[in-house]
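Work package 3, deliverable 3.1, input record:
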Amino acid sequence: MEHQISVSGDTATVRLSGRLTFKDHRAYRDLLAEMLAHKAKVYELDLSKVEHIDSAGIGMLMISKQKAEAEQGSVVIVSPPPAVRRVLEVAKIDEILEIRG
Amino acid sequence: MGVAVASRPGAAVRFCAADPADPALLLWSATQTVEATGDRPLGGGAILIAADLDEVTLPAILLCDGRTVCAATAQPDRAPKIMRLARRPRALFSLCVDTRTGMDLDMGGAIRRALEADGRIGGEMADDLETCLHEAISNALVHGNLGLGSQLRETPEAYLQYAALLEERLGDPTRGGRLVYIRCAALRRGVAIAIGDEGGGIPGGPPKISLGDASARCSGRGLALIRTMARDLRHRDGGRLCVMRFGGDGA
């Protein structure tokens, strides 16, 4: 998994690419710290370049939500590809996290 | 020493006979130079012991003619167990790796690509099979062989310690050297995939968490995803062995 972060106003956009799985805990922990350092109100997690997500990856999204909300922020999932969207929907994450695009 | 070269296009992998007395037992190594004498395609039932597997060679090996069994382990004392697993009949292929290797390789993706190339799966079923494989393999590696519970990922605070604990356990020769084995068999319609580990099993049996129950949690939805996406899921050997089926009347 790789990532890039850009900030516009109160929104920080995190563009993730590659695979978001149980092998990415350390990378995601570092990403989380970097992301939250921006003190944004909205964190957009752009998944358009994510090839695969598993339950550990979903857990990482949920951790992001909890951490952002603890600092009065919110998390939005943006543009998941069809295969990733299907996993999110089967896991009912679309009922908890806003998914755009 | 006899040499076999995979004959399927795109599977440019070279083998040599590991044991001249058993020409079906083949050895592959990325670091070994093999003189190509007596090239021949792999025969059915050939057993392959492979070291130094990576993301490129693993799918190629699984796609080889002969439905090879491959194992990536640097532990010669584990060879007898690997051979016993390898010689079980009716497998399309088997794959046996140690935990450290398993954490490095995309085994789920490799198996998906091998089964797709073989025409056994496709479309949404291929996506679902890969997701289920990832879940079952990560359970075997992380919860089984490394003995890390999913509750360690439940809170942000615990999660921040989780990555460090994972690496610590991987560095433990005993835990990091435990095997995970995957065996894929053809069904009349679809495939069955068994994934086994050498961990402590699941005391009290596998959790029955539904995706509705798990929706707000940070962990614990892996088995629920499998139950939803696979045709069925069974556990044996105290939870150390998980068997999933795909295709046919269900998913």
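Chain A touches chain B through 27 residues (CB under 8 Å).
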